[in-house]
Design a protein that fits this description.
InterPro entries: Bact_Chemotaxis_MeTrfase (IPR050903), CheR_C (IPR022642), CheR_MeTrfase (IPR000780), SAM-dependent_MTases_sf (IPR029063). By secondary structure, this protein is α/β, with parallel strands linked by helices. The chain contains 10 helices and 10 strands. The protein is globular, with a radius of gyration of 20 Å.
Length: 258
């Protein structure tokens, strides 16, 4: 009953807008397929797009301290990294990743860093591409120096500066479908997304992600998510708590800082 109440609350504005008298009537319309665009609107209304820059901070510190130094050595020949922010919402996570690299330009000079943000919601992907945020949104997770350096004030709030926007691309993507181009990602962040899926669909998502990763890549989940009991495609990385790697992969031992 509590879940139905939450659904009705989330869809109340849409029901009023479309003149649909009840949730049951909405379900009937969706099942009959009379209005295909309505299904997209329902998905948009039900999605939880809560996010902010450098959310929870510790995961980004973990990437900077553990994953990125190792990948920098392993990819020294190609000087290329591909990162996928899955379920990126309005883009703060993807832009946070871009800032990690942009704030250390000497270290990453000559590297090609491809950051892709995807989400099932067309509306939030449009917002992410625009890189436009309110005063409240741009202050969440950013220090004043980062805010001033990477965002410019506009009539509608604050917008990510063009050099930062240029380093990130966004597209609509359902995690239950095959992974986006180019695949073979070095790092995949899929944080606070699996919480909303049942166990069967979680298994599908883990398979999609595993197939899209390079053998020595890493997966990062949200604090309340795990691969334990969910999939056999991933296992916890014993040297980097909070990161997961594909099972059956022997990673080369690299001493960070060597």
């Amino acid at each position: 009953m509590s879940r139905r109440w939450r659904i009705e609350t989330a869809l109340a504005a849409l029901l009023r807008e479309r003149g649909i008298p009840s949730l049951d009537e909405l379900i009937t319309i969706l099942v009959m397929g009379r209005e295909p665009s309505l299904a997209t609107q329902v998905v948009e209304a039900l999605l939880n797009n809560e996010t902010y820059f450098f959310r929870d901070r510790a995961p980004f510190d973990l990437l900077s301290r553990s994953a990125l130094p190792k990948l920098m050595q392993r990819r020294a020949a190609t000087k290329r990294l591909t990162i996928w922010s899955a379920g990126c919402s309005t883009g703060q996570e993807a832009y946070s990743l871009a800032m990690l690299f942009a704030e250390d330009p000497v270290k990453w000079a000559g590297w090609t860093i491809d950051i892709l943000g995807t989400d099932v919601s067309e509306a939030v992907v449009r917002r992410a591409r625009e890189g436009q945020y309110s005063q409240f949104e741009v202050q969440r997770g950013l220090g004043i120096n980062q805010m001033i350096r990477w965002f410019e004030e506009t009539e509608n709030g604050w917008r990510a500066v063009e050099p930062l926007r240029r380093t990130v691309r966004f597209q609509v993507q359902n995690l239950l479908e095959p992974a986006p181009h180019p695949g073979k990602f070095d790092i995949v962040l899929c944080r606070n997304v699996l919480l909303y899926l049942n166990s069967e669909r979680r298994g599908v998502v883990f398979d999609r992600i595993a197939d899209a990763m390079v053998p020595d890549g890493w997966l990062m989940l949200g604090a309340g998510e795990t691969v334990i009991g969910q999939t056999r495609r991933f296992e916890a990385d014993s040297e980097a708590r909070g990161l997961y790697r594909r099972t059956g992969t022997d990673l080369p031992q690299i001493a960070v800082g060597a």
